[in-house]
């Protein structure tokens, strides 16, 4: 099969397309023919090892010293089951599925073998593989943050980075939960964030929300503290007593199968719309990573796999 290999850490140019053996499904695993995947910020952090010195050392121990032990990166997939291993009960050949696995990687390829009991579920008939690949990463992380914050109807929530993969999902899920949402983004994304359900939109280069009179029950940092540390310094002054500020990179997220099932249902019924900035072919993975590295994508960058 064709796959993209990352043999060492570095810039997007370390990625290369190659022919590798097609994996075989073991017991309780399904072999998935991948139709779409995505380039997430997590993929880029792994590829470039763009972490603080302490975390970089820990990452090398966990992932591989000079390069990833699993050279095929990618955490998101959408496609169909090509074959099943022994004892598989949940899926059959031809079933359309999508899912997320931040430990196994391997989705920058034509095939991947995943456990049937992982964060994997059937793709609704009305949802395309490209859309399924687009909602998974941001949707799962946003649901984790909302559950962690115990979001309730009527709360006032500010989403910093409202036009990204996590932010665009969070805005939609917060409105669905009955929250009043203020989105912070750039000028070019203000209309997008408003269309997703934000009742107010702040353009971060023209207005500092920390200087405003509005008070929030929750500030949701959908960008991550690595990038937002300056912009969010002192943000607690606009929180109500007992309010919280939660970042997407606080701790290790708990990603659940039932959350993926919920996303599938919402996508099928129009409860959440995927935001797709650009779509690239697998052969153009270097260009896709270069674009995501620039830090200005709207929503998701999807990779189609022939």
- Please write the string of helix (H) and strand (E) elements: EEEHHEEEEHEHEHEEHEHEHE
Query: CATH homologous superfamily of the largest domain - what is it?
Result: Medium-chain alcohol dehydrogenases, catalytic domain
| CATH domain class name of the largest domain | Alpha Beta
**Rough outline:** globular
Distance N terminus to C terminus?
11 Å
Beta-strand portion reads 25-35%
Q: Helices and strands: which structural class?
A: alpha/beta
CATH architecture of the largest domain: Alpha-Beta Complex
For this structure, the CATH topology of the largest domain is: Quinone Oxidoreductase, Chain A, domain 1
Biggest sheet details: 7 strands, mixed
Rounded radius of gyration (Å) = 19 Å
**How many strands in all?**
14
Average pLDDT confidence is: 94
The structural domain count equals 2
Tell me the helix content: 25-40%
Low-confidence parts lasting 5 or more residues at pLDDT below 50? none
The tally of helices reads 8
């Amino acid at each position: 099969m064709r796959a993209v290999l990352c043999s060492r850490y570095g810039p997007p140019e370390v990625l290369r397309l190659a022919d590798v053996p097609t994996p075989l499904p073991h017991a309780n695993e399904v072999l998935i023919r991948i139709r779409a995947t995505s380039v997430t910020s997590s993929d880029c952090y792994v590829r470039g090892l763009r972490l603080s010195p302490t975390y970089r050392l820990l990452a090398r121990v966990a992932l591989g010293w000079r390069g990833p032990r699993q050279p095929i990166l990618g955490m998101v997939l959408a496609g169909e089951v090509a074959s099943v291993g022994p004892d598989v009960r949940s899926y059959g050949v031809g079933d359309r599925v999508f899912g997320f696995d931040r430990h196994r990687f391997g989705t920058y390829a034509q095939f991947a073998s995943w456990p049937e009991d992982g964060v994997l579920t059937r793709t609704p008939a009305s949802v395309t593989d490209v859309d399924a690949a687009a909602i998974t990463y941001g949707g799962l992380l946003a649901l984790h943050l909302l559950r962690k914050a115990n979001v309730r109807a009527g709360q006032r929530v500010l989403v910093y980075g409202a036009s990204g993969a996590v932010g665009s999902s969070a805005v939609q899920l917060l409105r669905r939960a009955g929250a009043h949402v203020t989105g912070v983004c750039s000028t070019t994304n203000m209309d997008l964030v408003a269309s997703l359900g934000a009742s107010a939109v702040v353009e971060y280069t023209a207005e500092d929300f920390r200087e405003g009179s509005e008070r929030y029950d929750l500030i949701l940092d959908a960008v991550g503290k690595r990038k937002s540390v300056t912009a969010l310094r002192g943000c607690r002054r606009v929180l109500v007593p007992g309010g919280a500020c939660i970042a997407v990179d606080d701790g290790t997220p708990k990603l659940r199968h039932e959350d993926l099932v919920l996303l599938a249902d919402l996508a099928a019924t129009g409860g959440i719309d995927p935001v797709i900035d650009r779509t690239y072919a697998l052969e153009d993975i270097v260009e896709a990573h270069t674009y995501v590295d620039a830090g200005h994508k709207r929503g998701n960058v999807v990779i189609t796999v022939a």
